[in-house]
Amino acid sequence: MCASKNDALFDEIHLSDNAKPLIDPNTCATFVVRLLHHARQLWPQAQLPIVRTFAFYLTLLEPEGAGTMASATPRNVQVLAGKCNTFLRLLSLPCRQGPFTSASIQQQAQFELLRAMARNQPVLPVTRRGYQAIIAVQLAHKKTLAERQSAELKAPSWPPWKEEKLGLDSQRGIEGLRSRAMRVMSQMKEAGYAHSRWEEVSSIFAGWDTDKSPTIQTRTLARQPWRLRGRVGNAGHHAIWEARIRATRTVREAWACFLSYRDQGLPPRGSIYTAMAEKLIYRRNALYSNFDQTSHALPGDALETFPEPLSARDLIYVHTEPPTLDELLTQMLSDGIRPQARFLSLLLRHAPSFRSGLEYLSCSDLSNEQIRALCTVWAHKSVYDEQSRKVVNELPAHLFSAFVYFLCKFSTFGELSARHARDAFPIILGSSQMAQGETSTLFSQDEYLGNGKEYRHPKTLAHAIELLRVRHPGSPQAWVFVLSALNKDRVTSRFPNMNRNIQRVIAWHEILEITGRMEYHDIQLGLQGFQTLCSGFSRAVNAGIQSLDAVEEALEVVGNAANQGKLAYIGLACPRFEDMVQNGLRGLKDQFDRLVLPDSKTPSLFGSGRPSSDNATDAQVILPPLLHVPSPAVLHAFVRSLGLAEDYDGLLSLLRWMSQYAAPLKEASDEYLNGAVMMRRTLVAMRLFLEGYQERQSWESLRWTASAAQARGLRGYEHTSEVSPEDSERLSFSDPNLQEAYDIVTATHVWGPWPSDEEVEEYYANHLYHSKMPPRLPLLHTLRQPSVLSVRVRVTRFSTAADDAVIQTQQIPAPGSGNIRVLLLNRPKARNAISKNLLDSLDKHVQSISAEGGTGPTRALVIASNVDSAFCAGADLKERVNMTKEETNEFLSKLRGTFRDLAGLPVPTISAVSSTALGGGLELALCTHLRVFGSSSIVGLPETRLAIIWGGRHVRLPGIVGVNRARDLILTGRRVSGAESYFMGLCDRLVEILPEEEQKEGAAREKVLRESIKLAMDICEGGPIAIKQALQAVNDFQKGEVAENKAYDGVVETEDRFEALRAFAEKRKPAFRGR
């Protein structure tokens, strides 16, 4: 409802002679409204300076006593309050670019405006509209640390009340129980504004249902209040039930809400079906992307649906099992509801097959004319009739983009014949002239490719490109989808006339052609498009590194296409690989300048000289220094492009720029759960490429050699991940590029220390090395910077140990400093039986960790198996047969000593058991502080059946499971399962291994090892000295307070303790150094 003219305009305002604004308040308010609109569309960061400018403008109005305006009449004050609350609402509208990541900017802008309203005399009140705007921003904002802590303590059952797993949990998570959005709603009610239906729905997303039971705090873009008008109390309103379905964690929880809505006899609604379908779709996506194991996200943080609880006790009861997506759609159609609008877009973007997508279109609410316009593959662009053009242009932007994405998703070819080469590469190999009779539709199965259920039309990519030509969408989203499709390997099987290197060079030039079209039509590439551009360039350069002949052949094909006029936006193609690289570098740098520089007149950051701030002014309000703030993933892609092309000057220029704008880059990085990991990876890549990555391709292992380092000018040194610039000598390099890079990184404190050798080795192995890599062995490995509240472990498969090593090792970066040492027992033919050689190797590791004294660099030890059939089968009886009595006694003495030293290590030790651990194998596990078993594990003590007793388990076992259970296990020699072991207290964590995982090679072993490393990561979040003293206090528990007081004396004066106190006061994560 629009306000009347009298209600929206100020009365005449008198201005002082010495502080006159250039514009009157009515004009100023109009400017603010329009500027905020443009900022949401183009430059979200500009919203904050716009509000600051308005706040500064208010101070220029003539004061009258303690007031603000000379004509501070009640009506003017009312109008000003209305304007400010309108601005609050405008600041809550989603931005076109990154609506969720921009929420923090909008929050800052709202807070700035609220402070200005509070400074005004009289104070300007926040109205219902203003409160709703603040709530909307809080709903879109990421969880605070307190809210994340509260979310982690939610029970896996439903409703998700707080679950106290430890005694300390009674005091944890209290602050985050009521989210910020809930607090604002409470303040709104205290201000006298009764809640409406909009607040009811918002409350469900904020973590609390209308009956005061908890839900899952879900990050969402709130609807506009006028769309949810109505009083509270209508429990059957579809918006409330839609919110309940969305504010769940699992498919069964969402299905239970759906059934509750249906069982109450409420009318079927498309929004209810949409919410349920989203849960099904995003659960499928989570399984496909391995989301459960790789994501930092908590429930409500991401779109992906989480898995069901492991325990049957926590499963929510539903009288019918959740349906599949197709079954849900069938039920929806039987209720007379067709997919439409954004639901149809969702289905198209996540269609599991080409036929499924066409079926979604057929059963949707689109007219036959609209489906015809979208699905007709015209023989030639000249015959694309005007009516179809009009229909395509009138489609909603989100639906058009979703359909383009659907086409691009199914644009790869398993087998390629010469007839379809033009369809796989439609820009360069496609025919410019086609017969009029070749017009077909996507439903024409006569031309389908594939077999089984994977049939699809061969011209999907060409059709997507043609649709872009017809519509020329102003939003870059559809264009980026096509760029991503062009960047894929479109021929996935072997094709003799076009190997993968040729494909990638051709694909790079097709990407350049589409990018040129975007530039011609003044369509911004955007950060996502730039990242795709960098990826395409890197792949093309890598193709040239691997096969120069293939690149020359591809460039000849590109040159022929250019001569035929197929590359209208590229012009002449580069005849040589070197020219292609140089032109590509220039193009990437130009695009980066356009993305980040707010003023086209600003010199390029890749020009001569260093970045400067000469253009800074003394203005009261400063505009954001960057037009777009690139995410760490974008920076990483750009660094790879510059590094693969060996553009060292470009790398240094980029590093200088990153250091100059480290603060805004850090703010942007913090909006991503993996932001810290990706930023660190970017710096590691920077060091690797500046040192010369190609030298490593001839190495026999991943270890750095002094000669290779000195070849790039590095004076020999050792630098481990726990050393920081503050407590080590400055490193010196003869290479000036490396020296400058080192100086920049160490001077930019938010980046942490100079990347260590281990980080560079790991990056090279995971992200650069390909066919020339030595044979790799399976090993669970993680590269992460752990957050305070969640741990993610990512599995890759390589080891730094030799193939024939009886124990393979890996160093995994621990939180803060140091590393977690992983030992993989590797005697597959002997089922990891303990031989002399294995015992010697184990003893060396134990002694080296013991010599560190618990202060690093080893923060924790994990012992696991590299063999599926056994953790450790005990003693090697075949080797024992050939031993003399003296050799046997010597072996047993060393074995007991090694196990005794292992049990006494001053760092946490964990054993990961997924299969068999018998006799000495179980003894080995008992020597570690903690044990993680898989449900597939089998453990036992069979020595009495062999007429012997052995080892120290008779001492250790009763202290773990009790005397009676220890007596049972030892005397009977029986074998117990993982579940019984957990029940007895023999293990501390139990990992469920599904039947299909037991059949899959390495699956159970990796799953248990992943959980063990996660446990080690959790432990290492604490201070190293405190962990050491805590272990000692627990070991000496029989001494009571004497042991506890002694342990406390060891931590009370440490630097780590003072750092923890400072971090608590400053509300940040502590950085423990073990001092």
Structure description:
- The chain is mainly alpha-helical and 1075 residues long.
- Among the domains are: 139-335, no CATH class; 479-607; 629-695 and 732-770, no CATH class; 807-1021, 2-enoyl-CoA Hydratase, Chain A, domain 1, CATH 3.90.226.10; 1023-1074, Orthogonal Bundle (Lyase 2-enoyl-coa Hydratase, Chain  A, domain 2), CATH 1.10.12.
- The protein contains 45 helices and 12 strands.
- The chain has a 6-stranded mixed sheet with strand order 3-4-5-7-9-12, with helices on both faces.
- Strand 4, helix 34 and strand 5 (858-865) form a beta-alpha-beta unit.
- Helix 22 runs antiparallel to helix 23 (500-520) and helix 27 (632-644) packs parallel to helix 30 (675-691).
- The protein is globular and about 95 Å long.
- Mean pLDDT is 81; it is low at 1-5, 64-70, 695-728 and 770-803.
User: What is the end-to-end distance?
Assistant: 64 Å
CATH superfamily of the domain at 807-1021: 2-enoyl-CoA Hydratase, Chain A, domain 1
Task: Give the helix level as a range of percent.
Answer: 40-55%
Strand fraction equals: under 5%
Radius of gyration: 32 Å
Q: Tell me the overall shape.
A: globular
Kindly state the number of beta strands.
Answer: 12
CATH class of the domain at 807-1021: Alpha Beta
- Would you tell me which CATH topology of the domain at 807-1021 applies? 2-enoyl-CoA Hydratase, Chain A, domain 1
CATH A-level architecture of the domain at 807-1021: Alpha-Beta Complex
Low-confidence parts, pLDDT < 50 over ≥5 residues?
1-5, 64-70, 695-728, 770-803
Sheet of most strands: 6 strands, mixed
The secondary-structure class comes to mainly alpha
Give the helix tally: 45
Strand arrangement, major sheet: 3-4-5-7-9-12
Q: Whole-number average pLDDT? A: 81
